[in-house]
Amino acid sequence: MRPILTLRQYTEDLIVHSHEHAQLVFGLTGALDFEVDGRGSQVVQQSLVVIPSGFHHACGSPNGSRCLVLDVPDDQWIGQSLGEHAEASRRLLDNAGRLSLDAGQSQLVSWLANSQVDDPLIAQQGAVLLLASLNKARPDSVGGRRLPYDALNAHIDQYAAYPLQVADLARVAGLSSARLHARFVAECGQTPMDYIRSRRLHKAVALLRSSDLPIGEIASRVGYSSQSAFAAAVLREFGTSPGKLRREAGDK
């Protein structure tokens, strides 16, 4: 059985996953960039983020952060442990968002962070107290504007021949890599790297159909040093070969 309460250090390394249990992440020191269900926020001291069960999320902390994490065991545990508070806790855990803590809640988080949370009894009772104290909490509003696709596409097109990373697009969008990754998954159903690859290949198809450039030259212009790797990528994306795409264009 996984621990209910743990202390965790976060770094610039991007974490992207989902899990079949609800989770609360309480800020202790530093700032943790978070994206849950395509919505961005930052977890700092006196705040937390709610991650419902099964929700895709991403996080990372460029300058490092320390957090107290509550992994809720399951719905049965909520009913048995929270009693009359159970329904309020279920409602809280069903809605992704960032919440601010009042002075009393912050003191409780700080006390637990300095306690032996690896002790099962302290972890159990501490988790119950934390959830009960949040019964009337309401998520803060979080940003919801769409990504700047025109600027992102222009950047990909301009540098299609060069190595591109998630951090490159994050700078264009004015977001952290964690936020950008989750926003792409929520809005497009694909990762930023998948988006870059697809954009490059569509640019390549346009060149195949509208120019007489050698296929190897086109491959190089969209970031492929190997013509065979380029052909394999085109086949995966479009179900046909670069040569056939060019011939089809010539037949029209």
UniProtKB/TrEMBL annotation:
Main location: cytoplasm
Subcellular localization(s) per the UniProt record: Cytoplasm
Family matches, as Gene3D superfamilies: Homeodomain-like, Jelly Rolls
Alphabetical list of InterPro entries matching this protein: AraC_XylS_family_regulators, Homeodomain-like_sf, HTH_AraC, HTH_AraC-typ_CS, RmlC-like_jellyroll, RmlC_Cupin_sf
Cellular component per GO, a single term: cytoplasm
Ubl conjugation recorded as keyword: no
GO terms for MF: DNA-binding transcription factor activity; sequence-specific DNA binding
Keywords: DNA-binding, Transcription, Transcription regulation
Domain of life of the organism encoding this protein: Bacteria
PANTHER family per UniProt: HTH-TYPE TRANSCRIPTIONAL ACTIVATOR RHAS-RELATED, TRANSCRIPTIONAL ACTIVATOR FEAR
Protein name: AraC family transcriptional regulator
